Amino acid sequence: MSSSDNNRLKARLARGFADRGPTELAATRAMVETIRETYELWGFEALETPFIEYTDALGKFLPDLDRPNEGVFSFQDDDEQWLSLRYDLTAPLARYAAENWDRIPKPFRTYRFGPVFRNEKPGPGRFRQFLQFDADTVGAASVVADAEMCMMAADTLEKLGIQRGQYAVKINNRKVLDGVMESAGVSEKQKLTVLRAIDKLDRLGEEGVKLLLGKGRKDESGDFTKGAGLDDKASETILAFVGAKAKTAKDTLTNLKKLVGGTGGEAGVAELTEIADVIERAGYADRVIIDPSVVRGLEYYTGPVYEAELTFEVKDEKGQPIRFGSVGGGGRYDGLIARFRGEAAPATGFSIGVSRLQAALAALGKAGNETPGPVVILVMDKDRTADYLAMAKTLRDAKIPAEIYMGSSGMNAQMKYADRRRSPVAVIQGSNEKDAGEVTIKDLVLGKEMSKKIEDRAAWTEERPGQVTVKEEKLVETVRAMIARQK
Q1: pLDDT-derived band of residue 189, with 50, 70 and 90 as boundaries?
Q2: Residue 300 among known ligand-binding residues
Q3: Is 132 annotated among the ligand-binding residues?
Q4: Is 88 annotated as a binding residue?
Q5: Which residues have CB under 8 Å from 99's CB, separation 6+?
Q6: 89 annotated to a ligand binding site
Q7: Where does the Aminoacyl-transfer RNA synthetases class-II family profile domain lie (predicted)?
Q8: Does 96 show up as a binding residue in the annotation?
Q9: For domain 22-363, which CATH number applies: 3.40.47.10, 3.20.20.10, 2.40.10.10, 3.30.930.10?
Q10: 136 assigned binding-site residue
Q11: 397 annotated as ligand-binding
């Protein structure tokens, strides 16, 4: 091996991150547009915040305040201020709302879309950068705003093609959990660990959560996660709360009342009762349900919390059944904006995990097909590049994506290029066609289909399936007709 090989930079993707190609990006774009349209129908308006915030603005929910880079990606600015890549889209909204409080309408109804970053251990389906799409109502103290978020989440999933019965939007209340933790004797220091343990119920099951409530758990890789340190009695109280769901909302609420009697959790049960009534009257009770297993892992939630969960099963590559589980969630965070203002600032919001939901839509066959590339115009005569560029412009002026081949290879290689570009059509004009004022247009999709049926090469050469020669002025008309037929 030469020294130059030793010094060559290795191309490698950072752990926990992913490259995304045109087909996936097109599917994301279509899905995001549907979410945007739904949110706007409900009266929410767009807002964009930066990727980077001051670390202290992200709030007390960070995994470890003494280590700013634990859980988030952080660095110090030249003035020694800690900056962090945003952990979610809620904390930046809280900063924006506090900073612009006097000029924004209240309630302030807004949506945001973009990447968020988590400095956590990557694994299958767990990335350090992923997309979220949030909607929030700031300045509304009534839990009717929370009920509205859940109903809008249900509408959004159905607009995306997930049918009723394939999902459920589940609601709980942090005040109820606080009451249960009070009954169980959970200390302030233990609360966040307990929250995060319960939040892993769908992934780890009851036994895994019980370990995290106690001494801790070792995962499949051998890594150990320290537990909350609860004794068996306290753990059983917490698990009884998680399992309090009954067949009807009324029975679930009755079970919760028994668990939180004489604690501050009674206020949470009252709020859930009001939400359940609103949802039933609005006609959403079959898909928006009360479920005590929902807690959400972030510490800043102060009241109702909710999750959108997919309930259908699909098979993986090995034929094993898998469930996608939660694809979004949120809740009430009345204290997050108040940190900046020193006065009450009620707020609630819902966040969709775009990447996870897109994977679920793909499993249902609703994520869209492979995105076609542009029409490729072959360069048959190097000295006629300007003619080919003019042809591409004619197609673009007609709103048909087009490019000319910019390489230096011959016709066969150019056709292979068009195939790799997923081009629907190739345009060919040699000197003979130019002299006759004609252009040859090849339907590449039809050509592929016909090639499966024609085995004799001579017959293939003679028939030239999907290929026509027309006058130059019919270029746009013919290309558009071919593309329309393919669709």
Answers
A1: confident
A2: yes
A3: yes
A4: yes
A5: 340
A6: yes
A7: 31-372
A8: no
A9: 3.30.930.10
A10: yes
A11: no
